[in-house]
């Protein structure tokens, strides 16, 4: 009952930890703390400065923004430089020549149309007088030529044209049209109109007609001369618009020096300070909103990756809590280090131990998550260390932290366990130094050797500090969250551990069996890329429950009667089936890691106790259900647990073979794996058929070393040896 109650509690706590709201709370905690730590780095700085005040320090623009007043002034100046645009209307010359021709044609027509002028006149009436006829002709010409609204041609001119003879009128027409065409072919602006009319008069004055007709010709010609060089309003507006648009906006750029220390703040400087927001004391909500969105983006991407990555954090909320603490500790140390920049020591920010987070995550969780977290640390660090820049991001520190985190994660993943943390620290220091030198040398303004030395020294110290902090914090995380790191597994594998000593003293046969199972399981796990050390240590403890009744298990029955021969198969079943759960309970009492407990509890899965099942059926009146002689489970939930179960069965079965040979052993190993596969014992462990074949090959290779063939010595040699 106690065992069942404990199992139920474990399942209840497991369901509680896996609730998504717990994960949401943890990610919200990361976001909230991140927002608080970054808030001081994004709130815009304001200055208490007045006109004519002397600046007590250099002031640079924190943003890039347009100086709209200066831009408008430049555009106005560009527009003012553009004069009016004129268009030369060359077609006007033809139009005006045609108009002169029309005047002379109408005059000719008016001279010969007395009857048309008085269409209803009776023949018996007296003929029109000369003056009356001229008046009608003038009225007709004005009507046809639309001259009523114009004073360009006087009645005297029309009369002079009417009085001219046909030949004289033809000469006048040709002379006038030629003069008008000649003058109108040149550019004539409004200002040049008077000169053009004088020019046409001069050209007509050489004609051989009478003075009266000459004056009429001049008046007609001057009437026809109009400006042909016209102001184009739309073209002028378009050019001025293009000139205004071509003016580059006046920008106050991020980092631009607005005022030097000791310089007086005049109106122009004061206006620039106002534009960039350094004088704005009002509350600006946008930086707060921007930071909230950025933090939401970081935590959202982090949550998505953690939930998708194939690591222990994906489903284990306890590991997610540990990851949250590592993340918070790392960014908190980054914030503390960023505050050291206030000491104004060259390069002190490069001492930031950002690699601590990557190292701890690599050792305790997975390298992939450490690398991804390193990217997040770099983004966060570029904001935290923006004190020396005028913008929001300091990409120099961002790149430095990125390379530093990658170096720690990669080196730890490929190193051995004994000294890899300190060695990783030295490797990170070397990468830090290279990164710092590269970043310093790429600057346009070269640093002095002393400054470079300070930066290099702090970069080296960063890797060392990160390694020391990792060594110091690692045991706390391992103990607090039951993490099975390599060092913890090595500690648990020590023969001096109380539980291993208990097995050795109380069940020595089981101890030897567990060691052999550990050898088989470790090699098999490593053959498919699983944690071999975990398999070995789990194998050491998997049969701990046998210490409760050691003599009921055959490996501990040395030269003694088998107690199962005196009890019923049902009682034997109860004793045998209890040992995985007795061992798991004992492991829980000793606060052993969950992975070790799971191996002990799951290594038999729901297999059938075939020997006692058949024995019970032999004595029973009716068939007994298999379920009564099966382990209650659970089945192996991980590949390591399944492999330990295979190794356990193989080791126990191989010892029963009489005169073992490689063929016999291989046939037995393959049969055991095939039986477990068909029985569904691997259904929940994610083992593939290919991996099962690799496991079989690995186990056979290991067994060859245990059951290798020995040389048969001749009888006479053996006898001589005994006598000697």
From TrEMBL:
This is HD family phosphohydrolase. The lineage of its organism: Bacteria, Bacillati, Bacillota, Bacilli, Bacillales. SMART domains: HDc. Keywords: Membrane, Transmembrane, Transmembrane helix. It holds the Pfam family 7TMR-HDED. It comes from the Bacteria. InterPro entries: HD/PDEase_dom, HD_domain, HDIG_dom, Metal-dep_PHydrolase_7TM_extra, Metal-dep_PHydrolase_7TM_intra, PgpH_phosphodiesterase. Residues 506-662 form the HD/PDEase domain. Gene3D superfamilies: Hypothetical protein af1432. The chain crosses the membrane at residues 21-43, 285-306, 318-339, 345-364, 369-386, 392-412, 424-442, 454-477.
């Amino acid at each position: 009952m106690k065992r069942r109650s404990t199992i139920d509690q474990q399942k209840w706590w497991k369901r509680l930890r896996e609730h998504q709201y717990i994960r949401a709370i943890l990610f919200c905690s990361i976001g909230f703390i991140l927002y608080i730590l970054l808030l001081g780095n994004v709130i815009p700085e304001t200055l208490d400065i007045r006109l004519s005040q002397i600046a007590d320090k250099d002031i640079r623009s924190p943003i890039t923004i347009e100086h709209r007043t200066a831009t408008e002034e430049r555009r106005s100046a560009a527009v003012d430089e553009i004069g009016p645009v004129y268009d030369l209307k060359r077609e006007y010359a033809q139009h005006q020549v045609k108009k002169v021709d029309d005047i002379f044609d109408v005059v000719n027509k008016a001279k010969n149309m007395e009857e048309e002028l008085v269409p209803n006149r009776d023949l018996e009436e007296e003929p029109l007088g000369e003056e009356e006829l001229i008046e009608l002709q003038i009225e007709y010409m004005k009507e046809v030529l639309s001259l009523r609204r114009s004073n360009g041609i006087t009645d005297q001119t029309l009369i002079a044209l009417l009085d001219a003879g046909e030949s004289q009128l033809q000469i006048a027409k040709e002379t006038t049209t030629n003069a008008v065409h000649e003058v109108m072919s040149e550019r004539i602006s409004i200002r040049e109109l008077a000169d053009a009319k004088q020019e046409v008069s001069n050209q007509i004055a050489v004609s051989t007609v009478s003075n009266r007709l000459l004056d009429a010709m001049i008046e007609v010609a001057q009437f026809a001369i109009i400006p042909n060089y016209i102001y184009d309003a739309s073209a002028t507006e378009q050019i001025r618009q293009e000139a205004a648009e071509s003016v580059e906006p006046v920008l106050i750029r991020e980092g631009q020096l607005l005022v030097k220390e000791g310089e007086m703040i005049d109106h122009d400087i004061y206006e620039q300070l106002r534009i960039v927001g350094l004088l704005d004391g009002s509350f600006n909500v946008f930086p707060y909103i921007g930071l909230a969105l950025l933090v939401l983006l970081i935590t959202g991407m982090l949550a998505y990756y953690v939930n998708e990555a194939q690591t222990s954090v994906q489903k284990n909320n306890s590991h997610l809590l540990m990851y949250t603490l590592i993340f918070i500790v790392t960014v908190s140390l980054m914030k503390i280090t960023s505050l050291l920049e206030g000491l104004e020591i060259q390069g002190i920010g490069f001492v930031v131990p950002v690699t601590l987070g990557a190292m701890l995550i690599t050792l305790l969780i997975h390298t992939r998550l450490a690398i991804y977290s390193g990217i997040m640390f770099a983004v966060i660090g570029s904001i935290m260390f923006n004190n020396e820049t005028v913008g929001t991001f300091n990409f120099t520190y961002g790149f430095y932290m990125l390379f530093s985190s990658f170096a720690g994660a990669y080196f730890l993943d490929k190193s051995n366990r004994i000294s890899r943390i300190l060695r990783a620290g030295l490797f990170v220091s070397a990468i830090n130094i290279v990164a710092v030198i590269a970043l310093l040398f790429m600057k346009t303004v070269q640093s002095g050797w002393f400054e470079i030395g300070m930066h290099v020294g702090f970069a080296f110290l960063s890797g060392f500090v990160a390694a020391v902090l990792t060594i110091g914090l690692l045991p706390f995380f391992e103990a607090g969250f039951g993490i099975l790191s390599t060092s913890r597994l090595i500690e648990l594998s020590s023969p001096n551990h109380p539980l291993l000593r208990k097995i050795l003293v109380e069940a020595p046969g089981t101890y030897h069996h567990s060691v052999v199972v550990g050898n088989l399981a470790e090699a098999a796990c490593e053959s498919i890329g699983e944690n071999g050390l975990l398999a070995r240590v789990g194998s050491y403890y998997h049969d701990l429950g046998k210490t409760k009744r050691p003599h009921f298990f055959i490996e501990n029955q040395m030269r003694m009667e088998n107690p199962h021969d005196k009890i019923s198969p049902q009682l034997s079943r109860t004793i045998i089936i209890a040992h995985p759960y007795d061992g798991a309970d004992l492991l829980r009492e000793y606060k052993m890691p969950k992975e070790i407990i799971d191996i002990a509890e799951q290594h038999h899965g729901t297999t059938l106790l075939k020997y006692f099942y058949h024995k019970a059926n032999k004595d029973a009146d009716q068939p007994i259900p298999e379920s009564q002689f099966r382990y209650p489970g659970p089945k192996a939930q991980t590949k390591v647990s399944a492999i330990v179960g295979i190794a356990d069965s193989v080791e126990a079965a191989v010892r029963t073979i009489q005169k073992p040979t490689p063929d016999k052993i291989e046939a037995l190993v393959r049969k055991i794996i095939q039986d477990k596969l068909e029985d569904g014992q691997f259904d929940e462990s994610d083992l593939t058929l290919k991996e099962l074949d690799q496991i079989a090959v690995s186990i056979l290779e290991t067994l060859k070393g245990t059951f290798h063939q020995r040389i048969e010595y001749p009888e006479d040699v053996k006898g001589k040896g005994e006598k000697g």
